[in-house]
Specification:
Helix content: 25-40%
Strand content: 25-35%
CATH superfamily of the largest domain: ATP-grasp fold, B domain
Strand order of the largest sheet: 3-2-1-4-5
Bound molecules: adenosine monophosphate, glycine
Shape: globular
Number of helices: 13
Largest sheet: 5 strands, parallel
Length: 419
Amino acid sequence: MKVLVVGGGGREHALVWKVSRSPLVSEVYCAPGNGGISRIAACIPVKAMDIEGIVTFSKKNNIDLVVVSPDDPLAAGMVNALQDAGIRAFGPVKEAAVIESSKVFAKNLMKKYKIPTARHEVFNSPDKAIKYARKQKYPLVIKADGLAAGKGVIIAGTYDMALDAIHEIMEKKIFGESGSRIVIEEYLEGKEATVLAFTDGNTLVPMVSSQDHKKAYDYDLGPNTGGMGAFSPSRHYNERMAEICQDGIFLPTIHGMRNEGIKFKGVLYFGLMLTDDGPRVLEYNARFGDPEAQVVLPRLKNDIVEIFEAIIDERLDKTRIEWDDRAAACIIAASDGYPGMYRTGFEISGIEEAEKEEDVMVFHAGTRHENGKYYTAGGRVLGVTALGNTLETAINKAYNGIMEINFQGMHYRKDIGMR
Ligand code: AMP
Ligand code: GLY
């Protein structure tokens, strides 16, 4: 089979790595890919949002399966376009990806199907939002409705901060049209966990749990990023919690979607807050998490292409999914200044040394490969993932790996997996 993976970050490197291990696969392509991916797949110069470009390339090259990985092309209907062109594609159609691309849709779904989440209200105008915010308890959470590169959530500690947030999102439009509507919701306290699930719209199989670290600096300080590291399993998501989530959150979500006439086929991401009153949904994503994919995929024992095919053909109920019992940790190395302004083009050393250790993998996020050398090319540059018999072993191995790596301005958190 010829498989094309759409995207070019650390998550896509992990996906391409996993896909390339499938005995069913003869050739792997990635659009646009990155420096690390170019060593194991043919990277093609088509942007991840170029729907026409992806369809044309797939037709011309007789691609048997396209895996659409990032949120933007899913929300824009890349899977719909591929299907219309008669090409097999893995990922939700845009009507299903709306569970991520509209927080208002997601909140309404949860309300209607009694899926536990933070109490909320939706606002189309700043005046009403401000009036409402005045009467709330603080901190208060303010979310832009649409996609905002993971930055559309503001936790306002005071009423003045809420006023600023409403002004910035709805009037200054810092997230563009994504901020035409906002959700204001109660602040939840607890432990965060991520559960990704494979689903064909009928059957839902959760993957092993994980947790990411969104803040830029140690002790969860600094601005939100795409994710500075992850580990699996979560320290707080036990079997009892898994049962509660399966019955009270996961299955009601896909059944609710089906009831609304929407079949979700792909990977559904549940961002959970485990509170004293039980688990609550913080957010849904319509795809693998990044960097959660870098710790979950190395633990998957199955051929992932078989799972993708089973989902497309709606026979996930006949597939037994198996996991490596070992834990995994991933530490992200970022460019100095990320998630703000940063410079690129610095040579990276030590990748091969890091990978010499058994069960240590380096997944590239923003790198370029030229004349046998790697150079930085993004904010998140790469992630070192390690497997270990315990979480502590995995974390130590991942840190030993990242200490081999160096580039000018390299920054990484020192407390991944510690909490
Ligand atoms: P989201 O993109 O919705 O997951 O939000 C980004 C981050 O904001 C989450 O990972 C949480 O850390 C935090 N967050 C979102 N909603 C809430 C909430 N209702 N209460 C507390 N923290 C939240
Ligand atoms: N790690 C969070 C996300 O992928 O949205």
